[in-house]
Amino acid sequence: MILPWHLYLMAFLYILAGINHFRKPGMYIKIIPPAFKNPKLINILSGAAEIILGILLILPFTTPIAAWGIIMLLIAVFPANLYMFQNKKAGFGLPIWILFVRLPLQIVLIYWAYQYTF
């Protein structure tokens, strides 16, 4: 079964993002809100989840499960995006408008993943 190109793109982006959690962990640990304990473990788990879910996206029999997993992951990491918006140090010096645009972008990414849940 040949899957649509945009599904392969999504899988590639999540796998790449997941790998980056291990290449540059400090970048991700920095954006985890202090209310969450053990940011190193959270970084490892979220990076591994992105890699695994990205791979599962391109297996036709696991695509819907992986898409639901990505939706849950996007909801779970939303506090990090909000923390980046609220905390200057966590925002990497990015303009506030970019940090603001990242918040509703989560909805777009959730919608994109939802397309593959059935």
Describe this structure in words.
Helices cover 72% and strands 0% of the residues. It has 118 residues and is mainly α. The chain has one domain. The longest helix has 19 residues, at 5-23. This is DoxX family membrane protein. Its main location: membrane.
In total, how many domains does the architecture comprise? Answer: 1
Name the average pLDDT.
96
Largest sheet: none
- Got a strand count? 0
Which blocks of ≥5 consecutive residues have pLDDT under 50?
A: none
Strand content: under 5%
How helical, in percent, are the residues? over 70%
How far apart lie the N and C ends? 15 Å
Structural class of the secondary structure composition? mainly alpha
Radius of gyration: 15 Å
H/E order of the elements? HHHHHH
Q: Based on CA inertia axes, which overall geometry fits? A: globular
Number of helices, counting only DSSP H or I runs of 4 residues or more: 6
Looking at this protein, list some descriptive labels.
DoxX; 6 helices; 118 residues
Q: Quick summary of this structure?
A:
The chain is mainly α and 118 residues long. It is 72% helix and 0% strand. The protein is globular, with a radius of gyration of 15 Å.
Indicate the topology.
Blueprint: H1 5-23, H2 25-29, H3 39-57, H4 63-76, H5 78-86, H6 96-114
Helix pairs in contact: 1-3, 3-4, 4-6, 5-6
